[in-house]
Design goal:
By secondary structure, this protein is α/β, with parallel strands linked by helices. It is 45% helix and 12% strand. The structure holds glutamic acid. Residues 8-10, 42, 195, 199, 211, 213, 217 line the site of glutamic acid.
């Protein structure tokens, strides 16, 4: 059976490096196993979800090349949640509660004062129909809790350990004691559903086979497995990856805006650098720039993902981006270079690619090769001697060596004293691609103008 995976962001913000990692691992898993990949917008929080964020997420995924086979929005699916909720209500597994936030907070502090864990006491299970009616006439709308399978009777509460277990795709054998948890609220008093529930209904409806998500969901998984069971659905396999920390070891959550896909895109980073980082960070494989999504999918091995936090450092991502560009063949960048107005074909690209951090850095080198620059003249006399010795065209990669040997023989200058002034005059800057590659691209006419101090 081909696997079915999904990425389920809430459209309450743009994608950032943390959820890109989740999206990437699910997408690669689906592609590696010839499965399918669903984009599910978890937009049950109507106040915070927007169309703009949903579109932003689609744009970010498209830019990354994480295409989806099917898209679903939870806000379109209320009828399915209603039907599933009705079936649980009919069996008393989903039960109405009337406590206000304040009352619940008071209960919790009382429990703490008695040295008890602050678990919901299931008092609402004791209400009879008359009492419920009275509370509703008082204007209280019920919220609905899912009755976790954690006591035999459910009368009052003496929680018994009730272990839900699964073999996690990343963390191995996992257990959650749902006896130590409050019955989760699945429907708010305003009638809206919580993700905990809608996600399970959808995972069943779409026959999702594997869910890879952050380890902040481990406890949720214990609860959701109980909901799968209550709904008679088959649960997917779960894998929980560790979360990312920054270079100083802190959680990333505070600065996520700066770590958005949008900001990577604006900084000119390559989608494949972002994907390579997202797929390999926190795994036992070194983080290497991988050229294609197919190669990255072939490399995916969830058993190599560590349970220790992955470290995200923007400088590392930038370094990875440069390393990726340094090895990309011309065909991978030709279209985008053309859009940037950079010419010179493969010959130019192969000379400069080792000196760019982002693709747009090629523009400055294209200016050096084909445009006008102001040369930096350190020693006019030396440069004039060099100009007189510049060979006739055609130039090749050997011209630079032959020329500088001749200049050395004529002036007695060697090493840095020889090369540095020539580079400054020919390129206007003191570092860059090898001159044996640049010189033939600059050509004899421009080189002569620059060696003589002219702008050309
Ligand atoms: N909407 C949930 C989140 O963004 C999805 C979690 C899941 O993958 O089940 O946290």
């Amino acid at each position: 059976m081909n696997p079915i995976l999904r990425f389920a962001p809430s459209p309450t913000g743009r994608l950032h490096i943390g959820n890109v990692r989740t999206a990437t691992l699910n997408w690669l898993f689906a592609r590696k196993c010839a499965g399918s990949f669903i984009l599910r917008l978890d937009d049950t929080d109507l106040e915070r979800s927007t169309q703009e964020f949903a579109q932003g997420i689609r744009d970010d995924l498209m830019w990354l090349g994480l295409t989806w086979d099917r898209e679903e929005r939870q806000s379109d699916r209320t009828q399915f949640y209603d039907a599933a909720a009705d079936s649980l209500k009919a069996r008393g597994i989903l039960y109405p509660c009337y406590e206000t936030e304040d009352e619940l907070a008071r209960k919790r502090s009382r429990q703490r004062a008695l040295g008890k864990p602050p678990i919901y006491d299931r008092a609402a299970l004791q209400l009879d129909a008359d009492e419920r009616r009275r509370l509703e006439t008082e204007g209280r709308a019920p919220h609905w809790r899912f009755r976790l399978p954690n006591t035999a009777s459910g009368q009052g509460l003496t929680p018994q350990p009730t272990i839900v277990s699964w073999n996690d795709l990343i963390r191995g054998d996992q257990i959650v004691d749902v006896g130590s948890l409050s019955d989760p609220v699945l429907i708010r008093a305003d009638g809206t559903y919580l993700y905990t529930f809608t996600s399970v209904v959808d995972d069943i409806a779409f026959a999702v086979t594997h869910v890879i998500r952050g380890e902040d969901h481990v406890t949720n998984t214990g609860v959701q497995l109980a909901i799968f069971e209550a709904l008679g659905g088959e649960a997917p396999a779960f894998g929980h990856h560790s979360l990312l920390i920054d270079a100083e070891g802190n959680a990333l959550s505070k600065r996520l805006g700066a770590l958005s896909v949008q900001s990577f895109r604006e900084a000119g980073l390559e989608p494949m650098a972002v994907l390579s980082h997202a797929a390999l960070v926190g795994s036992s494989d070194a983080i290497e720039p991988i050229r294609t999504r197919e190669e990255l999918a072939a490399k995916l091995d969830l058993s190599k993902i560590s349970t220790a936090p992955g470290r995200f450092d923007i400088e590392e991502l930038k370094g990875l981006n440069a390393k990726l560009l340094h090895k990309l063949p011309y065909e991978d960048v030709a279209d985008r270079l053309a859009v940037m107005g950079v010419g010179g074909g493969a010959a130019f690209w192969e000379v400069v690619r080792g000196n760019v951090g982002v693709l747009s850095d090629t523009q400055a080198w294209w200016q050096v090769v084909a445009g006008n620059i102001a040369p930096v003249i350190e020693d006019a006399e030396f440069l004039s001697t060099a100009a007189a010795l510049l060979p006739e065209e055609p130039f090749s990669h050997d011209t630079w060596g032959a020329w500088t040997n001749a200049v050395k023989a004529a002036t007695g200058v060697k090493g840095r004293g020889l090369f540095h002034p020539l580079r400054l005059a020919l390129t206007g800057t003191d570092q860059g691609p090898e001159l044996k590659g640049l010189l033939p691209l600059i050509g004899r006419d421009k080189a002569l103008v620059r060696l003589r101090g002219g702008t050309g």
